[in-house]
Amino acid sequence: xxxxxxxxxxxxxxxxxxxxxxxxxxxxxxxxxxxxxxxxxxxxxxxxxxxxxxxxxxxxxxxxxxxxxxxxxxxxxxxxxxxxxxxxxxxxxxxxxxxxxxxxxxxxxxxxxxxxxxxxxxxxxxxxxxxxxxxxxxxxxxxxxxxxxxxxxxxxxxxxxxxxxxxxxxxxxxxxxxxxxxxxxxxxxxxxxxxxxxxxxxxxxxxxxxxxxxxxxxxxxxxxxxxxxxxxxxxxxxxxxxxxxxxxxxxxxxxxxxxxxxxxxxxxxxxxxxxxxxxxxxxxxxxxxxxxxxxxxxxxxxxxxxxxxxxxxxxxxxxxxxxxx
Length: 325
Known about the structure:
mainly alpha
C-alpha cells in the first residue's frame, strides 16, 4: 500500500496538485450546483414556491452546523491519516479511520436528536415566520433523519481524498448529485410531496454516496481499510481529532451564525427577502467553493510529505497554492 501512495512524495508538485485539485474543485462545484438546482425546483412548487423557498432558507444555518460538525471530525482525522501514511504507519491510519467513523456516528446521533426535538424553536430563532415555519419544519425534520449519511459521506470522502484518490471522491459526489437532481422532480412534483420531497431526495442521495464510500473503505485493496478490530472507543484519539478539526469548525460555525443573523435582519422586510437571501447565499458559496476544492487537493500532498519528513515539498506545495489563490 505504501508503494501505491509514493506518487504523493515523488511527482512534481505542480502536476500533482492539479491532478488532485481539479477533481476536488469539480466535486465542490457539483455539490454547490445540485444545491442550487434543489432551490430551483422548490421555487417552482405551484402556489407555494416562494414560501417553500423561504422555509429552506431559514434551514440553512442548521444545515451549515451539520456540515461544520462533519468538517470538525473529517478535517481533524484525514490529515492525521495522511501523516501516518507518509510515515508508512498504516495501522495507525486505520485506527484513525475507525475513530473518525465512531465519532461521526456519535455526533450524528446527537445532532439528529437535537434537531428533531428543537427544530421548530431553532427555526423561529433563525428567522422563520408563522407563514414559513411549517415548510421549514417539514424540510428539517426529514433532513435530520439523513444527518448520519451527510456526516459519514463527508467524513469518508475526506479519507478517500486524503489517500490521493481525488477522482474517486469526485465520482461519489457526482453520483449523489445526479441521483438528487433526478429524484427532486419525481418526489416534489410526481409524488406531490412538495418540500418534503426535496428533503427526502437529498437524504436518499447522501445515503447512496455513503454506501459507495463505505464499501470502498471495506473492500478496496489499495485503500486504508475500515476494520472492526481497529474501531475502538479511544478518548485520547477523539481528543486529537477534535483538536485538529476545530480550525475547520470555527469558520463554518461563524458562517452559520452570520446566515442566521441575516435571516433575522431580513425578517421585517417579509418572507420574500429571506427567500432572496437564500438564493444569493448559495451563489456566494458557489463562487468560493473552487478555492475550497483546491485546498482539499493540497491536503493529501501536505499530510503525506509532512509524515515522510519532506518538509521542502510541503513548503513548495503551500506556496504553489498561495500563487494559484
